[in-house]
Amino acid sequence: MNNKIIIGAVALGVVLGGAASYLDSNKLNRHFNSSTIAYVEASNPDDSFAKMIPLRFELTLKENSGYDVYAAIPNSKVGYMTSGDYTLDSDGVFFNIQTHSPLRAEGSHYGPIEQLFLRRNAFEGHRKVAKLEDNKAALIGHKVVLLLNY
């Protein structure tokens, strides 16, 4: 009788565990990408302007708590590659940079916006993650929100 109860409990555990693995969860997917536009506005009494800048962004989260980022401003032909480690908590994701490599193609434009974009700590720190719908999430930083597809 005990053997039947044990076998039944194990079988029930396997079925429930298998069913739970197919349900939607709040875990992050491993690869995210974003093609979006940044709106930059500056105003002062002498000079005011606004500019829309297309951005390309890819984030890969690894199983060993590492990550890789590729980000670029295609029109300016500049970008960067960053890698490091991340930790998840109840508020979102904390990114800690280990390596940062600016990328500048031949004939690239290198103005003030590009200089800010390429700085080392541009992607370091805490980000919140908000799931929006199937295969879409928002990565919310201090001064930027990226719409991510996965």
What does this structure look like?
With 150 residues, the chain is an alpha+beta fold. The chain has one domain (28-149): Lipocalin, CATH 2.40.128. Helix content is 19%, strand content 53%. The protein has two helices and eight strands, in the order αβββββαβββ. The chain has an eight-stranded antiparallel beta sheet with strand order 1-2-3-4-5-6-7-8, with helices on one face. A hairpin with a 4-residue loop joins strand 7 and strand 8 (145-149). The chain is elongated, with a radius of gyration of 21 Å. The model has no long low-confidence stretch (mean pLDDT 82).
In short:
With 150 residues, the chain is an alpha+beta fold. The protein has 2 helices and 8 strands, in the order αβββββαβββ. It has helices at residues 2-22, 112-118; strands at residues 31-43, 48-61, 66-73, 78-89, 92-104, 125-133, 136-140, 145-149.
Mean pLDDT: 82
Continuous helix count: 2
CATH T-level fold name: Lipocalin
CATH class: Mainly Beta
**How do the helices and strands follow one another from N- to C-terminus?**
HEEEEEHEEE
Domain count: the total is 1
Largest sheet: 8 strands, antiparallel
Helix content: 10-25%
C-alpha end-to-end distance:
49 Å
- Indicate the structural class: alpha+beta
